[in-house]
Amino acid sequence: MVAGSALAVGLAAPASAATSPFDPTGYTPNTSDLVGSGSDTSEVVLDYLSKGHDGIPGFNAGRTSGRIASYAATPQPDTLTLRDGSSLARPANSGGGRSQLFGTSNNVNFDFARASSSIGAGTAEVTAGLRQIPFAQDGLKMVTATTSNAPTTIAPADLVKIYNGTYKTWNEVPGGTSTAAIEAYIPPTGSGTRSFFTAQLAKANTGGATVDLAGNLKVAQEHDAAPLQGNPNAIAPFSTGRAKSATGIKTIDGLNAKRALYNVFRGADLNGSKKSTIDAAFRENGFFCSPSARPLIEAAGFDQLASADNGGACGIPVQADINNFKLASQEGALVTTTTLSASAANGGVVTLNAELSAAGSSLKPVGKVSFRENGVQVAQANAAGGLATASISGVASGAHTYTAVFVPTKDADFAPSQSELKTTTVLASSAVSVSASGGAFGTARTITVNGSGAAANAPVSVSVSGVVSTTVNLSNGSGSVALPATTPVGSRAVTVSFAGNGSAYASSASATLSISKAGSATTLKLAKSKAKAGKSLKTTVTVKVSGSSLPANGKVTLKVGSKTIGKGTVKNGKATITLKKLKKGSYKIKATFAGDANVNGGSSKTVKLKVVK
User: What is the DSSP letter of 33?
Assistant: First the structure.
């Protein structure tokens, strides 16, 4: 590679001057070498990739130029001496490394920055043309001391409350029992792990809003286990790759996010004088994406991304976070995407739907989906036609955050994938019931309403179609509505509903009230049993509604055989009818009540009348 200008020099850090085992050793970088620093997360893996590890050669093996010179993020504070004699504070994190590549801090002694978080959309880094090249997958989990007061699982939504200061002691965290104060640690500003972690908090926060961090958070170098070791009240976000080699700490369930590790370059350098070395080390067909690099990456605790030729993202320069996490161990398999939706319903029922797709293929991923809450499997379902569904019952009220993890039947066919976190809120359950006992017209009735859960002591709406619509305040789960004896005949819908509110589900129930026609009893009474021909005679007809005190009303007819001899109207149960002038003879008279919409008609017993001259 052709040497750059006199200003384009590396860092003067020969073996004797190295202050970290992960600094370049055994040589002084020259202008043909690629010099970088930045993220604490990837300082070890870059050291392995450049120098080699455990007998496996690295990129620099046999090279005297065009090498990778990666400087560690620690110790802090520390000063690096530049080739031109000037000094520079050792970059401690992703942001610190990237800052050396553009703007007023642009440093020609630096060629790349290690990064554990992506370039931010719409930032000056994008405007400056920086490009990031992914090569490995890392994860982020929470860690505590081996012996800790923290519960073994902390949901992301509860991490929000720890880091915004809502939870101050461990017994306030679900599953915690200690009254000791929480000591929450966070990496310093500029840390890629910090920005990735706060992005995960925002995803778990209501509405995806940025979390306002508490003022008492303790700041510590990312992936430094020292503040946590032996401290039962400490908690911090930690690289899963780095946690594998750390001592005195343990990971806990709950947050389990994956991210890419990048090396960031000036866009101009990708096609400039440094292109051949960048291509040989970092690009799609370079060493970092080759089978030779895989054991070095895995030795540092990470997973090598699949090569571009095998459907992966390794070595492809981008300006945004990648979402293709196909690994070298899955080369040959189709990259999959798992998208989770979650909904909650009355009765503590949560329905989880995972939609699966394979990149660049119409094939539907085949396998199982593990639905997890706080890292613990709560349901499992087979994927059929690109969809897996599970229903969980008996879920407690409150916010619940789930992930869906696709596990392929054959790794050679489909790569596993995991959804983003999805939160749904389960409201308090409610239930109502209604009973309506029907029967014959003319009797007062009671509609009985019962409620449980949030409806046990709440107002409910009760409606009997065409009769009444009212509100009943339930007490200890019960209430009633009185219906008058005059409730008309018919089959009527009875509904009861609890409207619910922001903390409880609505519920409803229905029944049918059937009122049948009542019977009637008709009595005929003559003023006299013997009358003179040609004279009129008054009669009284009495009609009673069977089983009721309600009076009957309607038409009544007096007949002798089929011949009508008188008509009248029953009002309030009685009718007075004057018979027509009859001829001499004996008559058998019967009164027939016609009935109405609510009462059946009927006839009286026959009454004898003798008419004489």
Answer: S
Q: Are residues 253 and 270 in the same domain?
A: no
Examine residue 21 and state whether it is found in any structural domain, yes or no: yes
Cα(first)–Cα(last) distance of the chain, in Å? 150
What pTM, to 2 d.p., does this model score?
A: 0.64
> How wide is the angle at C-alpha 471 spanned by C-alphas 469 and 477, nearest 5°?
130
Q: Where are the beta strands (DSSP E) in 228-335?
A: 234-239, 249-266, 303-304
Give the CATH number, domain containing residue 265: 3.40.190.10
286's tokens: 């370079």
Q: Copy the structure tokens of residue 608.
A: 């004898």
Q: How many folded domains does the chain comprise?
A: 5
Q: Does residue 112 or residue 334 have the better pLDDT?
A: 112
Q: Report the CATH number that the domain containing residue 414 is assigned in CATH.
A: 2.60.40.10
pLDDT of residue 337: 93
Which of 516, 544, 565 is at the close of a domain? 516
| Confidence at 121, pLDDT banded by 50, 70, 90 | confident
DSSP state of 599: B
List residues bridging with 403 in a β-sheet. Answer: 372
220-265: pLDDT as tens digits: 998 899 999 999 999 999 999 999 999 999 999 999 899 999 999 9
Whether the Cβ atoms of residue 344 and residue 363 lie closer than 8 Å to each other: no
Inside any domain, residue 6:
no
Place of tokens 């709560």: 378
Letter for the amino acid at 103?
Answer: G
Q: Domain limits at 167?
A: 138-257
Q: pLDDT at position 18, please? A: 52
Is the pLDDT score of 16 beyond 50?
no
Let me know whether 194 and 232 are in one domain. Answer: yes
Token pair 């009973």 in the structure block, residue: 435
Per-residue confidence band for 613, with pLDDT thresholds at 50, 70 and 90: confident
Say what the pLDDT of residue 87 is: 78
Using N-to-C axis directions, what is the helix angle for 192-204 and 156-163, rounded to 10°?
110
Q: Dihedrals φ, ψ of 435, to 5°?
A: -125, 140
